[in-house]
Amino acid sequence: MLICDEYITPDTLSDAFAAMERHRGRYRVVAGCTDTLPWAREGRAGDVEIPVLIDVSKIPELSERRVDGAHVRLGAATPVQRFLDDAVLGRTMPAMPRCAVWFADDQIRAHATVGGNIVNASPAADLTPCLIAHEAAVELATANGRRSLALREFTLGPGKTALQDGELVTAVVCDALPGYGGSFEKVGHRRSLVISTVCLAVLVKLDAAGRVFEDVRLAIAGVCPVPRRLTEIEQALRGVRLSSAKLEEVADMPLDVVQSRTRQEYRRDVVRGFLMRGLINAAKRAGADPTALPQDFETTYA
Amino acid sequence: MPDLQIKATINGRKVARSAKPHQRLLDFLRDDLNLTGNKEGCGAGECGTCSVFVDGVLMKSCLLPVAKAQGTAIETVEGLARGGELSVLQKAFHKAGASQCGYCIPGMVMAATAALRANPFADREEIKERLGGNICRCTGYQKIFDAVELARDVQNGRLPATALSEQEHAEGDFIGKNVRRIDAPSKVSGKLRYAGDMIMPGMLHVQVLRSPHAHARILSIDTSAAEAMDGVEGVITCTDVPGEDGFGVFVHDQPVMARGKVRYVGEAVAAVAAEDPVTARRAVAAIKVVYELLPAVFDAEEAMRSGAPVLHDYAPDNITKHIPIRVGDVEAGFAAADLVLEENYSTQAIEHAYLEPEAGLAYVDHDGVVTVVSPSQNITHHRHMLAKIIAKPISKVSFIMSPVGGGFGGKEDMIYQGMLALLAMKTDRPVRLVFTREESMASTAKRHPSRTTLRMGFTREGRILASHLTMICDGGAYGLSTEGVMRKAAILGAGPYAIPNVRVDTYGIYTNNTPSGAFRSFGALQTQFATESTLDMAAERLGLDPFVIRRINAFQDGGTTHTKQRLGKVSLTRVLDALEQGSGWEQGVPAVRGGARSDLGRSDVRPAVSLGARFAAHDKQEAAE
Questions:
Q1: Which residues are within 8 A (CB) of B340 and not within 5 positions of it... i.e. 6 or more apart?
Q2: What are the beta bridge partners of residue B288?
Q3: Listed residues B516, B551, B586: the one ending a domain
Q4: CATH no. for A181-301
Q5: pTM score of the predicted model
Q6: Average pLDDT per run of 10 along chain A, which is 302 residues long?
Q7: DSSP states of A98-139 as a string?
Q8: Which of A4, A34, A47 sits opposite B63 (nearest CB)?
Q9: Residues A119/A139, Cβ–Cβ less than 8 Å
Q10: Hey, is the C-beta of A228 within 8 angstroms of any chain B C-beta?
């Protein structure tokens, strides 16, 4: 049970910082609360008494999202469901709708936030691999100023981030990638409300003929302490023609990504399958030449 | 502690009330507004029994601090049946028989309402996906999906409104007919009150102190700090039990609260009744217990060895129950067999996970009758046991069975009713205890984990000549239903087959694990899993179709079981026929299936699990471009 004496819902960032200053050492910042409330239960943190909760989800700036030339700026309190119902986000972040549909369920996505997912820093966070594939930068603010940090540097380990005392995550700034094909492959113990055993984000850009990989971005989570990019495979595919032989070759590249405590062999099998399926799906959505891959190859893997 | 002043519109009516800052929207709706159609199944956003619309968007009210409701318009299940008339979806749930225990149903109706609002033409796959955040343990979901499809088609005019009416059938003609469940309207509307939804004037809230140790001697319990707290009205331990302290379905080996020692993690040690749940929880945390750790045993086979820690003085060998059955001569059967197979099988503990966590209410009425209201699956037996525990004549003990929000055998045990009765007597006020999901998981019975060794002998033609089965079950710390489960396992374990030579031994063993108890199929699952698996392996070795080997051995009309029960009519062969036909069975030995299955990809074969049905239309459009 989460017990607090005061629940503050500031309307502005400056009010939030003032509340943080006023209750220094006695508060916790919350937004969607979808992680905080289940955390304060038996078997995890148990009964938790936090004097002050500061809910930043009603600060308008934190829910803004805009496409700014080559970048998409997501306010930290953007609910995950926006990736499914905002067409602009779907177009500029093509793997995100596929990721969002696997994230918890429709109801939790309605208030679970982007900022919360990255601050929570779960090794199985679903959004993080997508975001790092977009070269996301985290915008951090204090009452006195702002700084920006690559998401890859922000996430330090399970539950650990570079967030400092008195700092708030205000936005996540991502590469806008219109014209890319996206896919998100995930497996857990069931479909909805499930923690990833393995998840993989794939973004692919092909040439005009739909034959050559111009750009490939791959990021994996659920198998290592922090989500990570698969740069070796990305490099092996850039500038290369799309073919079944090449996909099989990269899927077989020896990768040392699976560091999980359990079921390593199973996870390695899944990673291989996901690389095949994710690259095929993303390439198709990027406008691949339908003759580029044999039909039976697609049926086998995708 | 500044209270919040919440202003919101709830089911079309303006509400302005103060609320505690730590309250969740679920607490506010249930405790302050008495809207108990919103259930708490898990409190962690996993089950969906608490789903409500906030400004038109469905959310789980257990994950929403009440402050988030400020200024919003909230719609709960109570708001769906406008003017008392059920919505199309609620009527469809009634028609399709989609409610069983009913505890998940208000949330399901809300999720289905959201799904059809989001896409009035959603197909079955999309409906499944959009209901993905809601869990049901009774229906297997198919009737729920049927109901949503029915409502969709009526709303879209593809079916007439009469499709929601009851199917006509002759008086007394029920089999194979769509017969209305008379309790369904109370469930689809959220009006039905389970024990945790019931309130009484002056009611106190109960919380339980549970053992953190698997096996420990209790040296002392100090409740003074808890008793001194403001708002605490009563604290009880085993010393408050006036009568014979013991309950259980077969052997009364479990005290209402731990007496002398604890035998599993989660066992009740003390209980508190206070003016509100937070005070009760704080009081529980203030009880000091000094334990002396004892060696514990967590494996049934280890518990059977000499020198193993002993749980109960009356059972120095840790055997709760051993059931032996002997028919014919199994060794002679094996000697005459053409094929003998021997295999080890194990099954794990399983939690019932009914959506309604245990809850109960107790009071002493004007005539001094101690009354317990709870979803007990065994109230008459509970009443008799409680009379002895509280040393009252049976006429002064009453049990009322509240609606059971799923039981599956898990609510047969009198795990908490004794504490409720004692607290009602001690405080002379009504008391209510509602388990958290975690508490329910940690402290109540599970399906027996088992290890089975099975040896079976067959003729070349597939006839079973002998079956020798030994099963060891982990019964956990207390007996509960173990004896019955062992009997059933022994009686049904050899399967519905005529076998001339049978030897069965089933053992229920005490360990320091969570107690095992009743669970659907009651022991038959564990032993039949072994027998049926061995039959499949024998079919493969003998080149027989799995249906064929079962038909060869099936009991026939007038047969006798290995426990000498005479059978009148036996329906097994008809069941096998229906199963073979209905499943689209591909005939042959078991090894022909697997990767070479010809039915994969057929429209009636379930594809691999995936998500993204809502993208299907989008993908088709992309493909067309």
A1: B334, B455, B456, B457, B458
A2: B222
A3: B551
A4: 3.30.390.50
A5: 0.94
A6: 96 98 97 96 94 98 94 98 96 97 96 97 95 98 97 96 97 98 93 91 97 98 93 97 96 87 91 95 96 86 78
A7: HHHHHSS-HHHHTT-BHHHHHHHT-TT-SHHHHHHHTT-EEE
A8: A34
A9: no
A10: no
